[in-house]
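Researcher: Sequence recovery benchmark, item below. Answer with residues only.
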């Protein structure tokens, strides 16, 4: 579930969310926090990092149903 996500802050303005050996998505900080995943399965723009991570966590819970 979402607690299996591991966040890696790899550059000043970018984080990757990992689940095991796979990158689930990235979050890039610009004017907003933009969520983007391989194949654009998850995408969105948020005003906070917390909101962006909540979107990713909700997607993981939904996918695990």
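Model:
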């Amino acid at each position: 579930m979402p607690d299996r996500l591991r966040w890696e802050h790899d550059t000043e303005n970018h984080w990757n969310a990992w689940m095991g050996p796979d990158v689930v998505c990235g979050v890039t900080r610009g004017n907003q926090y933009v969520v983007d995943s391989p194949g654009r399965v998850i995408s969105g723009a948020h005003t906070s990092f917390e909101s962006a991570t909540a979107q990713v966590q909700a997607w993981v819970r939904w996918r695990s149903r």
